[in-house]
Amino acid sequence: MLVATRRGIAVLPRWAVQNYLQRQYVTAKPLTRDGLMSEIWAATLPASDTRPYIAEFVALIRETGAAALPDIELTQ
């Protein structure tokens, strides 16, 4: 809210402020020429010990992230 009222700045991922960007409450600026990228990891037990719901959960995260977050780049 401080950013929207021109009383502050914030460093957040674009997906976290997408609604504010669409309503033009805030403006996004990259921190570097190419933007700032980060990797997100998920850790599970070895495949032989993983329960089916864990694999389904990870697949759901990947699928949802790719559909809902335009700046997300998925790797295998």
Low-confidence stretches: none
Shape: elongated
- Whole-number radius of gyration? 17 Å
Number of DSSP helical runs: 2
Rounded average pLDDT = 80
Q: Give the biggest sheet.
A: none
Instruction: Count up the domains.
Output: 2
Percent of residues in helices comes to 25-40%
Element order, helices and strands? HH
Structural class: mainly alpha
In percent terms, what proportion of residues is strand? Answer: under 5%
Number of strands: 0
**Measured distance between first and last alpha carbons:** 37 Å
Summarize the structure.
This protein has 76 residues and is mostly helical.
Describe this structure in words.
With 76 residues, this protein is mainly alpha-helical. It folds into two domains: 1-34, no CATH class; 39-76. It is built from two helices and no strands. The chain has helices spanning 18-22, 52-68. The radius of gyration is 17 Å and the shape is elongated. It starts with 17 loop residues before the first helix and ends in an 8-residue tail after the last helix.
